[in-house]
Protein backbone atom coordinates (compact mmCIF):
# COMPACT_ATOMS: atom_id res chain seq x y z
CA UNK A 1 0.00 0.00 0.00
CA UNK A 2 1.29 3.42 -0.91
CA UNK A 3 2.06 5.77 1.97
CA UNK A 4 -0.56 8.42 2.67
CA UNK A 5 -0.01 11.82 1.16
CA UNK A 6 1.11 14.31 3.77
CA UNK A 7 -0.18 17.87 3.79
CA UNK A 8 1.97 20.93 3.16
CA UNK A 9 2.78 20.97 6.90
CA UNK A 10 4.56 17.63 6.57
CA UNK A 11 2.12 15.83 8.87
CA UNK A 12 -1.03 13.78 8.28
CA UNK A 13 -4.24 15.42 9.48
CA UNK A 14 -2.65 18.81 10.19
CA UNK A 15 -3.50 22.01 8.31
CA UNK A 16 -2.15 25.53 8.58
CA UNK A 17 -4.85 28.02 9.60
CA UNK A 18 -4.91 31.59 8.22
CA UNK A 19 -3.99 33.04 11.63
CA UNK A 20 -0.78 30.96 11.69
CA UNK A 21 -2.04 28.23 14.02
CA UNK A 22 -2.32 24.55 13.12
CA UNK A 23 -5.58 22.61 13.04
CA UNK A 24 -5.76 18.86 13.61
CA UNK A 25 -8.61 16.62 12.51
CA UNK A 26 -9.18 12.97 11.73
CA UNK A 27 -11.93 11.09 9.90
CA UNK A 28 -13.59 8.13 11.58
CA UNK A 29 -16.45 6.25 9.98
CA UNK A 30 -17.05 9.00 7.44
CA UNK A 31 -17.29 11.67 10.15
CA UNK A 32 -14.69 14.37 10.49
CA UNK A 33 -13.58 14.72 14.12
CA UNK A 34 -12.08 18.05 15.11
CA UNK A 35 -9.12 17.66 17.46
CA UNK A 36 -8.39 21.32 18.07
CA UNK A 37 -6.15 24.19 17.08
CA UNK A 38 -2.55 24.18 18.26
CA UNK A 39 0.31 26.67 18.27
CA UNK A 40 2.80 24.25 16.70
CA UNK A 41 2.42 21.70 13.94
CA UNK A 42 4.16 19.07 16.09
CA UNK A 43 1.55 19.44 18.86
CA UNK A 44 -1.23 19.09 16.28
CA UNK A 45 0.47 16.01 14.80
CA UNK A 46 0.79 14.42 18.25
CA UNK A 47 -2.91 15.07 18.91
CA UNK A 48 -3.68 13.38 15.58
CA UNK A 49 -1.56 10.37 16.59
CA UNK A 50 -3.39 9.98 19.93
CA UNK A 51 -6.70 9.96 18.04
CA UNK A 52 -5.28 7.51 15.49
CA UNK A 53 -4.25 5.18 18.32
CA UNK A 54 -7.74 5.44 19.82
CA UNK A 55 -9.36 4.60 16.49
CA UNK A 56 -7.00 1.66 15.97
CA UNK A 57 -5.21 3.00 12.90
CA UNK A 58 -2.06 1.22 11.67
CA UNK A 59 1.32 2.81 12.42
CA UNK A 60 2.04 3.78 8.83
CA UNK A 61 -0.94 6.17 9.06
CA UNK A 62 0.58 7.99 12.02
CA UNK A 63 2.90 10.97 12.09
CA UNK A 64 5.28 9.48 14.65
CA UNK A 65 5.41 5.71 13.99
CA UNK A 66 8.18 5.25 16.56
CA UNK A 67 5.65 5.77 19.37
CA UNK A 68 4.80 2.27 20.57
CA UNK A 69 1.55 2.66 22.57
CA UNK A 70 -1.43 4.87 23.24
CA UNK A 71 -0.15 5.77 26.72
CA UNK A 72 3.19 6.87 25.27
CA UNK A 73 1.40 8.96 22.63
CA UNK A 74 -0.78 10.55 25.31
CA UNK A 75 2.22 11.39 27.47
CA UNK A 76 3.86 13.17 24.53
CA UNK A 77 0.74 15.13 23.64
CA UNK A 78 -1.84 17.34 25.23
CA UNK A 79 -5.12 15.46 25.61
CA UNK A 80 -7.24 16.13 22.52
CA UNK A 81 -10.96 16.50 22.86
CA UNK A 82 -12.55 14.22 20.28
CA UNK A 83 -15.59 16.08 19.00
CA UNK A 84 -17.48 16.43 15.77
CA UNK A 85 -17.52 19.90 14.24
CA UNK A 86 -21.03 20.61 15.51
CA UNK A 87 -20.09 19.64 19.06
CA UNK A 88 -16.94 21.74 18.83
CA UNK A 89 -19.01 24.74 17.70
CA UNK A 90 -21.45 24.33 20.60
CA UNK A 91 -18.55 23.84 23.02
CA UNK A 92 -16.80 27.01 21.83
CA UNK A 93 -19.95 29.13 22.13
CA UNK A 94 -20.53 27.74 25.63
CA UNK A 95 -16.93 28.46 26.57
CA UNK A 96 -17.35 32.08 25.47
CA UNK A 97 -20.32 32.44 27.80
CA UNK A 98 -18.45 30.75 30.66
CA UNK A 99 -15.38 32.92 30.12
CA UNK A 100 -17.53 36.07 30.09
CA UNK A 101 -19.27 34.99 33.29
CA UNK A 102 -15.95 34.21 34.98
CA UNK A 103 -14.56 37.59 33.93
CA UNK A 104 -17.68 39.31 35.32
CA UNK A 105 -17.35 37.43 38.60
CA UNK A 106 -13.68 38.37 38.89
CA UNK A 107 -14.45 42.01 38.12
CA UNK A 108 -17.28 42.10 40.67
CA UNK A 109 -15.08 40.52 43.35
CA UNK A 110 -12.42 43.17 42.74
CA UNK A 111 -15.06 45.93 42.72
CA UNK A 112 -16.46 44.71 46.06
CA UNK A 113 -12.97 44.82 47.58
CA UNK A 114 -12.38 48.34 46.25
CA UNK A 115 -15.83 49.79 47.18
CA UNK A 116 -17.01 48.37 50.52
CA UNK A 117 -19.31 51.38 51.15
CA UNK A 118 -21.21 50.76 47.93
CA UNK A 119 -21.62 47.10 48.86
CA UNK A 120 -23.09 48.09 52.23
CA UNK A 121 -25.45 50.58 50.57
CA UNK A 122 -26.61 47.89 48.14
CA UNK A 123 -27.23 45.44 50.98
CA UNK A 124 -29.19 48.08 52.91
CA UNK A 125 -31.28 48.83 49.81
CA UNK A 126 -32.20 45.19 49.29
CA UNK A 127 -32.93 44.67 52.98
CA UNK A 128 -35.25 47.70 52.95
CA UNK A 129 -36.94 46.46 49.78
CA UNK A 130 -37.42 43.02 51.34
CA UNK A 131 -38.98 44.58 54.45
CA UNK A 132 -41.29 46.71 52.27
CA UNK A 133 -42.40 43.66 50.29
CA UNK A 134 -43.09 41.67 53.46
CA UNK A 135 -45.21 44.49 54.89
CA UNK A 136 -47.08 44.83 51.62
CA UNK A 137 -47.79 41.09 51.47
CA UNK A 138 -48.95 41.10 55.10
CA UNK A 139 -51.32 44.01 54.38
CA UNK A 140 -52.65 42.24 51.31
CA UNK A 141 -53.27 39.06 53.31
CA UNK A 142 -55.05 41.04 56.02
CA UNK A 143 -57.32 42.84 53.51
CA UNK A 144 -58.13 39.57 51.81
CA UNK A 145 -59.02 37.95 55.13
CA UNK A 146 -61.31 40.90 55.93
CA UNK A 147 -63.01 40.65 52.52
CA UNK A 148 -63.53 36.92 52.91
CA UNK A 149 -64.89 37.34 56.45
CA UNK A 150 -67.37 39.98 55.30
CA UNK A 151 -68.42 37.88 52.34
CA UNK A 152 -68.91 34.82 54.55
CA UNK A 153 -71.12 36.83 56.93
CA UNK A 154 -73.10 38.17 54.02
CA UNK A 155 -72.79 41.71 55.41
CA UNK A 156 -71.18 43.36 52.44
CA UNK A 157 -70.36 42.53 48.91
CA UNK A 158 -66.70 42.57 48.02
CA UNK A 159 -67.75 43.93 44.63
CA UNK A 160 -69.40 46.94 46.24
CA UNK A 161 -66.42 47.46 48.44
CA UNK A 162 -64.04 47.45 45.52
CA UNK A 163 -66.24 49.82 43.53
CA UNK A 164 -66.32 52.31 46.40
CA UNK A 165 -62.58 52.48 46.79
CA UNK A 166 -62.31 49.98 49.61
CA UNK A 167 -65.14 51.40 51.72
CA UNK A 168 -67.56 48.61 52.63
CA UNK A 169 -70.31 50.84 54.03
CA UNK A 170 -72.10 51.50 50.77
CA UNK A 171 -72.91 49.04 48.04
CA UNK A 172 -73.83 51.69 45.50
CA UNK A 173 -71.29 51.85 42.69
CA UNK A 174 -69.56 55.13 42.02
CA UNK A 175 -71.31 57.34 39.49
CA UNK A 176 -69.17 58.49 36.63
CA UNK A 177 -70.08 61.68 34.89
CA UNK A 178 -69.01 62.08 31.31
CA UNK A 179 -66.70 64.99 30.56
CA UNK A 180 -68.37 68.18 29.39
CA UNK A 181 -68.31 68.60 25.66
CA UNK A 182 -67.51 71.94 24.21
CA UNK A 183 -68.72 72.89 20.80
CA UNK A 184 -66.30 74.68 18.59
CA UNK A 185 -68.00 77.15 16.34
CA UNK A 186 -66.66 77.48 12.85
CA UNK A 187 -68.42 80.71 11.98
CA UNK A 188 -67.09 84.06 13.10
Automatic annotation (TrEMBL):
A Gene Ontology cellular-component term: nucleus
Compartment list: Nucleus
Major subcellular location class: nucleus
Alphabetic keyword roster: DNA-binding, Nucleus, Transcription, Transcription regulation
PROSITE patterns: AP2_ERF (PS51032)
Bias kind Basic and acidic residues: ranges: 144-153
UniProt-listed Pfam families: AP2
SMART domains noted in UniProt: AP2
Keyword Nucleus assigned: yes
Region (Disordered): 131-188
Residue ranges constituting the AP2/ERF domain according to the UniProt record: 10-65
Gene3D superfamilies attached to this UniProt entry: AP2/ERF domain
GO biological process, one term: ethylene-activated signaling pathway
Lineage top rank: taxon: Eukaryota
Listed Basic residues bias regions: 134-143
Listed GO MF terms: DNA binding; DNA-binding transcription factor activity
Protein name per the record: AP2/ERF domain-containing protein
Source organism per UniProt: Lolium multiflorum (Italian ryegrass)
Amino acid sequence: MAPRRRSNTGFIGVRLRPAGHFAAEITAGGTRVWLGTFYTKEAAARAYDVAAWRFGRPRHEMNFPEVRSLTEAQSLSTEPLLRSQGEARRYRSGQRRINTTEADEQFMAQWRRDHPGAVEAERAFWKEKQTYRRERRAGKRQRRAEYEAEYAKGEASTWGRMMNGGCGTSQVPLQRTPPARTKISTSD
